Amino acid sequence: MHDHAATVQGKLYTSYGAVSAVMWMLYDTAIHFDVEVDCIWRRPTTWVKYAYAFVRYVPILNGGAVLALTANLTYPPAGCRGWIIDQLVVIECVTVAVELVLMLRVYAMYNRNKIVGALVGGGFAAEAALMGTTLALVVPRQTFTPDCLVASSPGIYMAYWLSSLCFETALFALTLYKFLRGVARARGRHSVLFLFVRDGTWAYAIIFAAMLFNTLMYQLVTTPLAGMGYFFALSIMSFAGSHILLNIRRLGMRMDSAPAALDELSSFAAAAVSDRWSSRRTDATEELSAVPPRAGAGVA
User: pLDDT tens, 137-180?
Assistant: First the structure.
């Protein structure tokens, strides 16, 4: 009786959490839609626009579809496993997209240093391989409730979340190191660098919290309540990725309208302003944080 009550309660709380996460994503999209139109949809079409559309709207569509198509319905284990694979593929793709954006920012901060690029790229490849391998081992061994909530997962599943935690921590450490070196040299004048670090810090904090929450839930909870972390992590990834990209575009627009920002930028990454600047100034500014300078640069 106790196990049945815990299962029912876990299912209820997981459903509440899923609805709350989807509603939060919708709310955040609505209150920032005017900024989104100005910074994304009215700007030139670049990779930022595609990345934003993916990390902002795919989680909303997927979360809504999962809630709508699994509510008050029962599926055989094979059907539930298909739903779980769908959810895991979506969150894996969103995680990869957000981490690619964070990687490009770190690469830009280090002026396209090849050593840093190799280390970050190698770490990312190792993380992706570990996450994919973990999912391949975990999914066949998961059990489900009749309405397709995860009832139990093998302990190895925590490796999926821990790998992302470790990689995010490494990116944050690189960001913080560069910021501290920059402040020491420029005495806090680099507002562009400060923007990079500010966004990197809050994004790291909330993503770390989401990943840690999932790790603990799947490790310590043996009821459907463990599945609550999926929607929480999906919404956090969507929020972090979309707002980082919005701020990249805001930076480009600020540079376009404020020549003083160019002076700040020149001491951070002067070589990024190429000969194209005079004819395609808007495009250059908007992509600057992701297209780092080519000219010489060391790690420090």
Answer: 988 888 877 767 777 778 788 888 888 889 999 999 998 888 78
CATH code at position 248: 1.20.1070
CA 33 to chain centre: 19
Is there a domain that residue 285 lies in?
A: no
* Secondary element (H or E) of residue 143: strand 143-144
* Token pair of 75 as six digits: 């599926």
Number of domains in the chain: 1
Helical axes 228-257 vs 2-31, angle rounded to 10° = 10
For residue 150, the cross-strand partners are: 144
Please classify residue 40 by burial: count the beta carbons closer than 10 Å to its beta carbon, then call 0-12 exposed, 13-18 middle and 19+ buried: buried
Spatial separation of the C-alpha atoms in residues 155 and 17, rounded to whole Å: 23
Query: How far from chain centre, in Å, is Cα 44?
Result: 23
User: Is the distance from CB of 147 to CB of 11 less than 8 angstroms?
Assistant: yes
Q: Pick the closest to residue 161 from 85, 216, 226, 227 (CA basis).
A: 216
Interior/surface letters 225-252, b for 16+ CB within 10 angstroms, e for the rest: bbbbbbbbbbbbbbbbbbbbbbbbbbbb
pLDDT, tens only, 199-215: 888 999 999 888 888 77
121: containing domain: 2-252
Identify whether 270 is part of a domain: no
Whether 295 is in a domain gets the answer no
CA-CA distance, 130 to 124, in Å (whole number)? 10
Q: What is the DSSP letter of 110?
A: T
With a pLDDT cut of 90, the percent of the chain lying above it is: 27
Token couple for 235: 């919404």
258 lies in some domain: no
